[in-house]
Design goal:
alpha+beta; Aminopeptidase; 7-stranded mixed β-sheet; two-stranded antiparallel ribbon; 9 strands; 37% strand; globular
Length: 150
C-alpha cells in the first residue's frame, strides 16, 4: 500500500486526534512536521507525522490507523516507512513517545527495534486538560524510545 507525503492542509485532523486527543497540542507541532498518509483505493486509512527535533534527530509522532483498518499490519508498515523516511532525510536517530499504558504501541515500537531510553514522568497530567485513558488506564508517564539509524 502506498504511503505518501501529504500537505498539512489536507491531512485529516480526526486521524491525528486518534493518537493525541488534545487538539491544541497537535496544532502546536503540526506545522513543523512532515505529514505522511497510507492510502487504499484513494482513501486515507492511516498516517503519521515526522518531526525534526534536533540536528540528526526526528521524532515519529501521531501514528494512527482508523479503527476499521486496524489489525491488518498497517501500523507496522507506517513505522517501517517512518524509519526509512528519516534515514532518507539524513537523520541518525528516530525517537518516539508513547503512554505508559499503551501496550500495543509499545510492542509495535519494540518490535521495530526501538529501545526504551527514558520516562517523562507525569507528561500526560501536565500537558492535557482532561485525563487521557488507554486500555481503561489513565495515561500518566510518557515512555521515550529511540532507534539509531546508523
Amino acid at each position: 500500500m502506498p504511503v505518501q507525503e501529504t500537505p498539512h492542509e489536507i491531512y485529516p485532523l480526526d486521524l491525528l486526534l486518534l493518537a493525541d486527543p488534545e487538539e491544541s497540542v497537535v496544532r502546536s507541532y503540526l506545522s513543523r512536521s512532515l505529514c505522511f498518509t497510507l492510502n487504499i483505493e484513494n482513501k486515507i486509512v492511516g498516517g503519521y507525522l515526522l518531526l525534526p527535533t534536533r540536528p540528526g534527530t526526528m521524532e515519529l509522532v501521531n501514528i494512527a490507523v482508523y479503527e476499521e483498518y486496524q489489525r491488518r499490519g498497517y501500523a507496522r508498515q507506517l513505522v517501517s516507512h517512518s524509519i526509512a523516511e528519516a534515514k532518507t532525510r539524513g537523520a541518525k536517530t528516530i525517537e518516539v513517545g508513547t503512554a505508559d499504558s499503551s501496550f500495543g504501541p509499545l510492542a509495535l515500537y519494540r518490535g521495530a527495534g526501538f529501545r526504551l531510553t527514558g520516562v517523562d514522568r507525569d507528561f500526560f497530567v501536565r500537558h492535557y486538560s482532561e485525563p487521557v485513558l488507554d486500555n481503561g488506564i489513565q495515561c500518566r508517564d510518557m515512555l521515550r524510545l529511540t532507534l539509531d539509524l546508523d
